[in-house]
Amino acid sequence: MGAMVALQLASTHHVETFDAPRDLQFKPAVAYYPLCGVASEELIVPTLILIGELDDWTPARDCELWMKRRADRGAPVKLVVYPGAYHAFSVPAFADGREMHGHWLKYDAEAARKAVQEMQSFLSAQFFR
Question: Cα–Cα distances in Å, from 63 out to 24, 74, 77?
Fold first, then answer.
């Protein structure tokens, strides 16, 4: 879904991009279940991270530790951890749950609904202030 790319583009370290216009400016970022370790500790755009508490592919704990390390430096970041939710909680195709590459993926309708609301609220605040 591009979460790690979003965090890399929101980071202060250089990211090589291809076929992107030079004047393209990345505004806010939304990352569904990313590996937070790909981001620098200081981001340059406001960012929303949505992740499941039980995600064993991209653990929420890694994002929580990353949030502590960054200590509110740079652009604001909001981390939302959905209790009881796994990786791919927003993907209805995983309604029955599925193991993939040794990780558990499972749709969670409530977490998905809340994540969409959180994302809409975040983007509205960023674009319509």
Answer: 27, 16, 11
For the entire predicted model, the pTM comes to 0.86
- What is the token pair recorded at 127? 């674009």
Residue 58 in tokens: 């991209």
* Beta-bridge partner residues of 105: 87, 98
Q: List the chain residues with pLDDT less than 50.
A: none
Domains of the chain (ranges; CATH) run 3-127 (3.40.50.1820)
